[in-house]
């Protein structure tokens, strides 16, 4: 994974049969990144370090970070762990928040 001062090259987890996409992602929380280029190149999205996207999209990077910080305060999650290790119930609450 290429790392610069502001962004990383984040490979997105794609569905079977889809070509891999690598996006420029900005650090939001440890293990959580904001990026464009998921299913819609015009909105900002959140993905964990494994490239799994969350149900969050916003018009600006600043708004995307704000949403992530509010949700993290309500339902703390350690985003540095593997995606399979994140409790689905807590993850669901985080996404709803």
Helix and strand layout, with pairings?
Layout: E1 7-11, E2 22-29, E3 32-35, E4 44-48, E5 53-58, H1 61-74, H2 88-96
Antiparallel strand pairs: 1-2, 2-3, 3-4, 4-5
> Biggest β-sheet, characterized?
5 strands, antiparallel
The neighbouring-strand order within the major sheet is 1-2-3-4-5
Mean pLDDT, nearest integer?
A: 80
Radius of gyration: 13 Å
What is the percent of helical residues? 10-25%
Q: Class by helix and strand content? A: alpha+beta
What is the molecular shape? globular
Count all strands and give the number: 5
- The ordered string of helix (H) and strand (E) elements is EEEEEHH
- Alpha-carbon distance between the termini? 30 Å
Residue fraction in strands: 25-35%
Name the poorly predicted regions: none
Q: How many individual helices?
A: 2
Describe this structure in words.
It is a single chain. The protein has two helices and five strands; from the N terminus they run E-E-E-E-E-H-H. The chain has helices spanning 61-74, 88-96, and strands spanning 7-11, 22-29, 32-35, 44-48, 53-58. It has a five-stranded antiparallel beta sheet with strand order 1-2-3-4-5. The longest helix is centred in the C-terminal third of the chain and has 14 residues, at 61-74. The mean pLDDT is 80.
Key terms:
single chain; 97 residues; five-stranded antiparallel sheet; 2 helices; 5 strands; 24% helix; globular
């Amino acid at each position: 994974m290429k790392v610069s001062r502001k962004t990383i090259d984040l490979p997105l987890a794609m569905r079977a049969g889809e070509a891999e996409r690598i996006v420029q992602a900005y650090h939001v929380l440890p293990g959580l990144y904001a990026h464009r280029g998921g299913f819609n190149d015009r909105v900002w999205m959140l993905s964990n370090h494994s490239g799994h996207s969350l149900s969050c999209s916003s018009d600006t990077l600043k708004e995307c970070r704000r949403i992530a910080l509010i949700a993290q305060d309500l339902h703390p999650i350690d985003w540095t762990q593997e995606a399979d290790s994140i409790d689905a119930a807590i993850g669901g609450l985080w996404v709803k928040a």
